[in-house]
Amino acid sequence: VSLFYALVNVETGAVTWVNAGHNPPLHYNSKENHLQRLRRSGMVLGIDPDAAFEQHKLVLNPGDFLLLYTDGLVDAINAQEEEFGMLRLEQLIQQHHGETAEEIVNRLEKAVEEHSGSITPFDDVTILMVKRK
Length: 133
Prior knowledge:
- The protein is of the alpha+beta class.
- The strands form two sheets. A four-stranded antiparallel beta sheet has the order 4-3-6-7. The chain has a three-stranded antiparallel beta sheet with strand order 1-2-5, with no helix packed on it.
- It starts with a strand and ends with a strand.
């Protein structure tokens, strides 16, 4: 089982996180206009009972956000069997980073639906965004 765990201090914007083999969440830094993939800090759960997981920290400043998603988003295929993919996801985030969290998530949902067309999804698509005002 993959897992991304984050503890967010809503007052300070401090985030402590661990990524156990999950898709890399995206951190958007508004000051630098930079999108970063949060790397894995350990293997998936359930393989090694003694596995260690490194904690990482970052700060969400006003305008910054975290985007978490399941692999069903980037793995969604169209009639030509082309994946939605990380590049398309990152491009959409860069284009719409100034919008609200709700607007960005709605745009992503619409984009994956348009990409897939009539193809029935073979995996769930879950999207969660935390954006600091």
